[in-house]
Amino acid sequence: xxxxxxxIDDLDAPRLRRMLENARAWxxxxxxxxxxxxxxxxxxxxxxxxxRTRSSTEMAVVTLGGHPIYIRPExxxxxxxxxxxxxxxxxxSYCAVIAARVFSHSTLDRMRDAxxxxxxNLLSDAAHPCQALADLLxxxxxxxxxxxxxxxxxxxxNNVVSSLAFAAAMSGVELVVASPPGFEVDPDVVERAxxxxxxxxxxxDPYEAVHGADAVYTDVWTSMGQEGEAEARRAAFDGxxxxxxxxxxxxxxxxxxxxxxxxxxxxxxxxxxxxxASRVWPQAENRMHATRSLLVDLLEET
Length: 302
Ligand code: CP
Ligand code: NVA
Description:
By secondary structure, this protein is of the alpha/beta class. 42% of the residues lie in helices and 14% in strands. Strand 3 (97-101), helix 5 (105-114) and strand 4 form a beta-alpha-beta unit. Helix 1 crosses helix 6 and helix 4 (84-92) packs across helix 5. The longest helix is centred in the last third of the chain and has 20 residues, at 280-299.
């Protein structure tokens, strides 16, 4: 059966563990990276901008011996020039994997249903699984064993924290999320993460969330595609900035994480993201190491 990764719960806990171990091993010793994509291509289609995801995915493919094909949205013009299914079938006839960053998650569902090569979600309105893999890798690398770690996410109950909820649930990490009313994590995500055995707490109080946390994580208040709501969101998220006072509530030695791009002075104070607790640069680098492991996992049975 073809493996896909549209959300972290497409994986299982043993595969997730092996991916993290491979990511660390190949990061330490690039000469051991298996050349599973030798002579093969990965299509990487983007409907939205990207600094990290495009570059880390392309380099992950190159280090696996493959060739990445970056596709701009205007080149394929999904569902206007031709259907999502016809684009996916065409790309699958040349490439071993289709990876895509899309507005609507349903576009990925349609791609997956149309092809027999793995489809990878490079971010949708609902999920950002490649980011969550890098997040786990970073927490484990920086703090040690994941089991029993407490991660506080402060901000919008968005794609990034949804994938983090599944990643946490499958690796024994306790997740607590502080969001203002109306911006909580999707209840369906919470239920699915809890059904996987995860501990996920929701609160409206950032201080309660961060109390005793080993890692404090935030993301933008306005995600790509929501630009028209930016002003209303800035007002709704007043009081949710991760600043030094909030970080002081976390455990001694707590680290700060952000998937980036960041807005200093909105969701995070410059003194935090540019300060000693910040691990955002190793976290960004780990996008490549995590995506490499994911691609190897997905290609194992194809
Ligand atoms: N974190 C992340 O996905 O960054 P980009 O949007 O720059 O790819
Ligand atoms: N939540 C953000 C993440 C960017 C990497 C967005 O979807 O724009």
